[in-house]
Structures
1.
Amino acid sequence: MLSVITSQVAGIMNCLKKGHNEQCNINDKIILVHKDTGLFITMNPGYAGRSELPDNLANLFRPVAMMAPNFFFIVKITLMSEGFKQTESLAKKVVTIYELMLKQLSKQDHYDFGMRAVKSVLNASGRIKRQYADLDETTVIIKAIRDMNLPKFIAEDVVLFDNLFMDLFPDCEEPQVNTDVLQLGIEDTLNAHKL
């Protein structure tokens, strides 16, 4: 499969080298290659399920080194976009808790403490902030982090997570949310199905 892609990419690159719009034969089909066409490959080494590019395909591209994004600024700006005011201190705490979870909790295949998980927490915190407008911003962040992480932790890691939380948020308690309606709905459904 990749050898076919290599020959197709090489054909397109040869057309691009001519410097103007050019017709190119790819798999017995004539296509017009626009002179401003660009081809890019993003590699994420070490990411589960990914493999290295074969040398003949990799040689067609120029490598460019990338650096890891600055989580703090991404978190701070995302919190601003969600309407938070205490973005500086909350961003530090969010980044710190995720760094600590990555370092101190056990290694499980289903754990994710990267940017995708952080973004999910930030989006959840925005929803919580809009739903419970009277909650303190720190309490909103606490609720979002706990709601998004606790269900996936194994029992041993829950204790470690709670200790990390107490260190990072010493004066705050997890907000109690009224789940009476949910509880009654679950009980009604169980009774209706004779469970």
Note: Residues 2-58 form one domain.
2.
Amino acid sequence: MTEDSKLILCIALIVVAIILVARFPGVLVALLGTATARCRDGSLSYSAHRCGTCSHRGGVDQWFTASV
């Protein structure tokens, strides 16, 4: 494999990763373990989707990400 083809492959992989993160932001959140919301009882939620987040904890007090 030539250096040029290695560079093209790396760029292609980066582009694919960016597209996947843009299309499925919850996957990145789950992989990084970043809290997406604080519930009204003070606990943190790591939910990948807004639907049902903190439903047994009084609802969402604050969202940390706009993309979830």
Note: The mean pLDDT is 85.
